[in-house]
Design goal:
Layout (H helix, E strand, L loop, with lengths): L7 H10 L15 E5 L3 H4 L7 E5 H8 L5 H14 L1 H6 L44 H22 L6 H12 L11 H13 L2 H8 L8 H8 L1
Antiparallel strand pairs: 1-2
Helix pairs in contact: 6-8
The structure holds zinc ion.
């Protein structure tokens, strides 16, 4: 069957549902964001809102490689759907045009999806005062997280990489997702990430050879300018 393009309205709905950011790493650059079919399009032969998840290109690759599991994708979808539930309750009961997704609908979707794009107030950008809202801090933290994964991969191999493990350990340590951590805790977060990089096998080896494991915040900032 020929694949129909994703309707623009539906695409917009998914962007809004996920606050226009990747639910796995917080990436908000629209150039890298894409809409992912949770159950493969080839299998369901349809575009349905309940089966769509926003993700950045990086995490999309991780989903394809099952580094991010289906369970984690489903969990992210569930959270995104329920993040604005108070708003959705305020909508009038105009649910006559809602499709229930039970795996049997293979037909046209475009004009039967309940599009909620009118409620533009659900747009959720980075939270003010957090690392996610501070471009320089955010970019540097991403640099360190990437560096950690790069070093870890050298240690365990691509197949054994478990990206969510590191994100979860940050969350455990700081009580929030990395980009929701307050700007004021940037120094502690950086120290934590650098320590973790330095304690990988590659990190230790490089340190012993007096090679740098990462750029400093100032170096990274001036490079980005
Ligand atoms: Zn991502």
């Amino acid at each position: 069957m020929k694949r129909k393009p994703l309707p623009k309205k539906l695409e917009k709905e998914i962007y809004q549902q996920f606050g226009s950011q990747c639910p796995f790493c917080g990436e908000a650059d629209v150039n890298t964001l894409q809409v992912h079919h949770i159950i493969a399009h080839a299998q369901v032969q349809a575009h349905h809102a309940d089966n769509l998840c926003l993700t950045c290109a990086n995490c999309h690759q991780k989903i394809e490689n099952e580094v991010i599991t289906l369970h984690e994708v489903a969990d992210a979808k569930f959270k995104a759907q329920h993040a604005h539930s108070s708003l959705s309750k305020q909508r009038p009961a105009d649910s006559g045009n809602v499709l229930s997704f039970n795996g049997t609908n293979t037909g046209v979707v475009a004009n039967t999806v309940n599009v909620t794009t009118k409620s533009s107030s659900v747009k959720q950008g980075p939270i003010f005062g957090t690392i996610g809202a501070n471009l320089e801090q955010r970019n540097y933290v991403k640099h360190l997280i990437d560096r950690y994964h790069e070093f870890k991969q050298a240690e365990v191999g691509k197949k054994a990489m478990k990206y969510p493990v590191f994100y979860n350990s940050i969350k455990r340590e700081f009580g929030a997702k990395w980009d929701h951590i307050p700007e004021g805790a940037f120094g502690s977060l950086v120290a934590f990430l650098q320590r973790r990089i330095d304690s990988t096998q590659l990190g230790k080896a490089r340190k012993a050879r007096q090679e740098k494991n990462y750029a400093t915040f100032d170096e990274h900032r001036s490079k980005a300018l």
